[in-house]
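Quarterly update from the structural biology core.
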Amino acid sequence: MNNQVKTKTLPGSIVIPGGRVGVLLIHSLGGTPVELRFVAQSLARLGYTVHCPLLPGLGANTDISGLSTWKDWYQSVQTAHDALCETCDTVLVGGLSAGAMLALKLAADRPDRVKALMLFAPTIFPNGWAIPKSLHLFKLVHDRFVARLFKFSQRAPYGIKDDRIRSFMLDSFKGDNRSLEDLFGRGGGMVLEFRRLVRQVKKQLGSITQHTVIFHPRFDDQSDLKNTMLLQRRLGGLVEVSVLDDCYHMVTLDRQRGYVVDRTVEFAARVMARIEEQAKIERMKAEAAANAAEKAAPASGSRKLNAASAMAGE
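Predicted structure, tokenized:
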């Protein structure tokens, strides 16, 4: 039986109805759900209900005024998660780059409702080799008004190592009559809010005990591998890490996306098999306890009857 996710979504969101297992995927800072399309489609083939919403404020061109905060982004994530939980018994959560931070925040705040995490090139701070040095100086900025005076531009290779894939992506964007500055620029206000989100998430890392898989490029142009190493040390649960050797930041689109997708699907299937096995064991324990109680009840009644007979005999 297919479940329709009952939530208001912006155009550009990915919603794929499926069964009672749900997957929430969160795009990057200034990105779109297209970044996670291959992952979403592959998980949907397992029969899962998949939702990758375009988040207001976090998504490209959804906050022209630059007034949204990380709490607005997170509220949208919570709303999408609530909608999935209405139709799904189990929900897994994944995120790309900055979206991974929102996924971690959700896992920390809702440990019983987020069963596992799938993180793609998680970014605690953008410190890859293609990041402009000016962004490092931006750490000194703490006022939102001052932050909004800044504008940060990305430069080639824009998170994609493969020339053909990068050209195809840029050509498709040109068809939308959007400049590269518009596509890859990030306002200072958005970057400041992301930094504030990370500050909150870092405080909660030790409390996150869900099984987690992380994919991160060795030579990430946007987010150094140190980001994942920090998560591996501080997260409180089992963490699996795949270090990729032939792609850049957009691991769900670049050369090794096939490997990333296959491992993600395998991880999700493995997590669900373990959950189903645990549920089976719990059912067996409950049945055994019920049977023991049922057998004990007649014996107890028999003892009472014998005691009553003995008293009558006296």
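The two ends are 67 Å apart (CA to CA).
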